[in-house]
Design brief:
Blueprint: E1 4-14, E2 17-28, E3 32-36, H1 43-51, E4 58-65, E5 68-70, H2 72-79, E6 80-83, H3 95-105, H4 112-119, H5 135-148, E7 153-157, H6 165-180, E8 184-188, E9 198-201, H7 238-251, H8 258-270, H9 279-299, H10 307-312, H11 314-319, H12 325-354, H13 362-386, H14 393-420, H15 426-455
Parallel strand pairs: 3-8, 3-9, 6-7, 7-8
Antiparallel strand pairs: 1-2, 1-4, 4-5
């Protein structure tokens, strides 16, 4: 567990511009440090660097525990909370759903949600959609994560800006209790915090050594009256919670497979018109048309795989979770396959038979479409991750992934066509299975690398 934060000779840059250089600071149990400075001075960037989301140009961020230095990534995974400008909340879900998910993702105890609801006075809001909440109510919902799953280090970016006077006072008491319990707070602020803090103005050089004076609740570590807050124990189920969330986002109010399915049916009807209406000709084209249309239909929902989480701040919280980012990407790819790829695969034999394919081909069409859908989900995820933060991301995704979609179309359509012609069809199926399984195994690493680059 983190007992001390050390910022050593840190230099940060964004967009080719150096924000600050040579920053030294330390934060121990029971202490709070307020980062001040002009807009654009680097307060938010410093918080993100401490969280591990922004790599420094020089210097280091280090953590110490009871027995000495801690490995940075492991220390961050279970010992800090980040509250940024964006609350990380999905507007089309209820407050209860969002609080429950993020509490589980943070490893909260069974009673953690109830404690957070009481502390932040959220009971009347739980059954409302997040989009119906005011800015202050959303911030209270986001702050509830800190209460549901206690962690020693809080990284806060203007935490009290949207709150009214009463809830500022209430959260001030929670901050005071967190410090008295041995917690630490590093906050970027423009307005004073309602607890005793040290101040570091990062826009006023020299930075070396500033903010090192006595502070915190009671002034020194010896004055902390209670033991440090218990580290939230690791709990299983984060992957299941994320999988259910992804399915709920895809199926609940995002159209799920309806839009891709309608597009698949329409495109499959449109493409053969250019080939004429001769039944034998359509039957020969059916496997290829069905698989080409299947690939294009899988493109429609890829943009939402990461983009919405990126825009509302949820992606930062997923990156900082205890599960490795590669596991997060694996779960997202599987959810994409279950929500979109598999239903479209079940529609594939209907499309192919409607175009004139023999009904006896249906089992192989389903098998190849399922394997192809798995490959589409994971290779498509690479494109979705690479397109994060770009304009017209949907178009860029198509440019990236269409070449990757070519092998499944060739192998899948080829296997079905071979069976229809009385030729050996198993080689195509084997190559398709190998491609899709390799994509499922390797793509999460590529997605994770692209996501880390995007959030930096």
């Amino acid at each position: 567990m983190i007992r001390r934060l050390l910022i050593e000779n840190l230099t940060l840059a964004r967009g080719g511009r150096t924000l600050f250089a040579g920053l030294d600071a330390a934060l121990g149990q029971g202490q709070a440090l307020a980062l001040t400075g002009a807009n654009g001075a680097g307060k938010t960037s410093l918080l993100r660097a401490v969280a591990g989301l922004l790599p420094p140009e020089a210097g280091a961020v280090a953590f110490e525990g009871e027995e000495g230095p801690l490995e940075a990534e492991a220390a961050r995974a279970g010992s800090l909370h980040l509250l940024g400008h964006h609350d990380g909340l999905k507007t089309n879900r209820t407050a209860r759903e969002e609080l429950t998910f993020w509490s589980r993702w943070s490893g909260a105890a069974p009673d953690g949600v109830d404690r957070a609801v009481e502390a932040m006075s959220l009971a009347p809001l739980l059954d409302l959609d997040v989009r119906k909440l005011s800015a202050g109510q959303r911030r209270r919902l986001a702050l509830a994560r800190l209460i549901a799953a206690p962690r020693p280090l809080w990284l806060l970016d203007e935490p009290m800006a949207p709150l009214d006077a009463a809830h500022r006072a209430a959260f001030g008491e929670l901050m005071q209790a967190h410090l008295l319990g041995g917690g630490m707070i590093l906050a970027a602020v423009h307005d004073p915090l309602p607890v005793k803090v040290r101040t570091l103005d990062i826009s006023s050089p020299p930075l070396r050594g500033r903010g090192q004076g006595e502070g915190g609740v009671g002034g020194t570590l010896a004055d902390v009256a209670r033991p440090p807050p218990p580290l939230t124990p690791p709990r299983k189920g984060e992957g299941r919670a994320l999988f259910r969330r992804e399915l709920a986002l895809a199926w609940g109010r995002g159209g799920g497979v309806l839009y891709p399915g309608a597009f698949y049916a329409g495109l499959s009807t449109l493409l053969p018109l250019a080939a004429g209406s001769e039944p034998q000709r359509l039957a020969a084209l059916a496997p290829g048309v069905a698989f080409a249309a299947l690939a294009l239909s899988n493109l429609l929902s890829l943009e939402r795989l990461f983009e919405r989480d990126y825009e509302d701040g949820a992606l930062d919280l997923l990156v900082l979770g205890a599960p490795p980012l590669e596991a997060v990407c694996l779960v997202k790819g599987l959810a994409q396959f279950v929500a979109v790829g598999a239903p479209l695969a079940l529609l594939a034999p209907v499309i192919a038979i409607a175009l004139g394919a023999a009904p006896t081909l249906a089992p192989l069409i389903v098998a190849t479409a399922l394997l192809g859908g798995l490959g589409f989900a994971f290779t498509g995820g690479i494109g979705a991750a690479l397109a994060l933060g770009t304009r017209r991301g949907g178009l860029l995704i198509a440019v990236i992934v269409l070449p990757l979609f070519t092998p499944p179309v060739i192998f899948g359509a080829g296997a079905v066509q071979a069976l229809a012609s009385g030729l050996p069809w198993s080689p195509g199926l084997i190559f398709l299975a190998a491609y899709s399984l390799a994509a499922a195994a390797l793509s999460p690493f590529a997605m994770a690398a692209a996501v880390r680059n995007a959030v930096a």
